[in-house]
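Record pair follows.
FIRST:
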Amino acid sequence: MITVAYLLIVFVFRSIIVWRQSGVNPFVFSSTENAHDYLGFIYKMAVLFMAITIVCYSYLPAVYQFLNPIPFLLRDSIQMVGVALLLISFLWTLIAQVQMSDSWRIGIDYDEKTELVVKGIFAISRNPVFLGVVVFYIGIFLILPNTLSFTLVLVMFITVQVQVRLEEVYLLETHGEAYQAYKNSVRRWI
């Protein structure tokens, strides 16, 4: 239930709010063959496989066993850390999205110039939304430790690393010296 709430509030509802406020669809990924849109495909597949993991655990325990649960991580204390990470990720990501306001996008809109956000949580991390997403997947892994959820953490970490670098090139081209100064003063993650 936490996962569904996270996805709905952080991605669906925030997208609707930004679209209504700005008139721009913040979901930018399409289905072309370029690297940026391929990353969007990977994000969608990661959400699908995360949902499969949760459904198998919740409703199909015999099938869940095929995901190779990691027994030594199946401890209440570790699962509580996972739940705490989900909650922290949710709040962190939501705050970052609210602070981005109309500049928030899922992907890179090469045809539009948005405001460069450098205050609030963005004074601590240049990529707080992506950081929140990675922490979210780590939380899911700690709650449901298995080979698929571990693989999803690795896939998301690598995918986010590539996405961030694509965005850095775009932001440098779009905002020039202002972004370079920001990049020099604020760390990529935290």
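SECOND:
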Amino acid sequence: MRPPVLLVIAHGSRDPRHAATVDALVRRVRSIRPRLVVETGFLDFNAPSVPRVLERLAAQGTEDVIALPLLLTRAFHAKSDIPSVLREASARLPRLRIHRAEVLGPSPLLLAALHRRLWEAGLQEADKRSTGLVLASAGSTDPEAIAVIAEIARELRSAGWCAVRPAFASALLPRTDEVVRSLRADGCERVAVAPYVIAPGRLPDRIAEGARQADVLADVLGASPELAQLLLERYEQALPALTAGRVAVTA
């Protein structure tokens, strides 16, 4: 029996850098597991759409798909958009079994990817004690997502940074520039901004704009080795339910 196809579901963006980053991440996943069929579908803006990918797979005789949301938290897209798209596809394609994997975060691999980007931007382990860190996320009004970001900030703080504070590019305050100023005012020798986002786009650009007065701006998580490994980890975690015949396409 062929292993289930891994369908990575990305949000999509008018910014071409978004799709290019998703493609690079998927290529890295394929390089790790060359025998695994890995497809990409987008919710909006980019092609192919999730329904079109599922229709093609069904037409090719695929029986099992693990749909993995390329999301860091369980917010609106994870709880509403993606379940709705998958339910509709499942109803139209009854021979295709679809199981929805968990979102990517939280995970130690994401923290490792975030630290990788900070080291690549020029920081060193020894700099942590004197560096205030802005954990800059896209932002959400979902309480679960907000709680996850707060917990990640606490974990980073316990890892030895001078101070760690969240900032948001939308939906919530404070913004990145506000947190940069507050960390500097509180006596941190330097301030670094760590975008807790996967791919470039409008909101990451807003984070970068707010980081102009920071000493260090890390890159987005992108096609990091840790993120690629995490996709495969979520795929493996989803396999038992699908193997047992329990299809989960609802929230």
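COMMENT: The chain has two domains: 5-104+224-243, 122-217.
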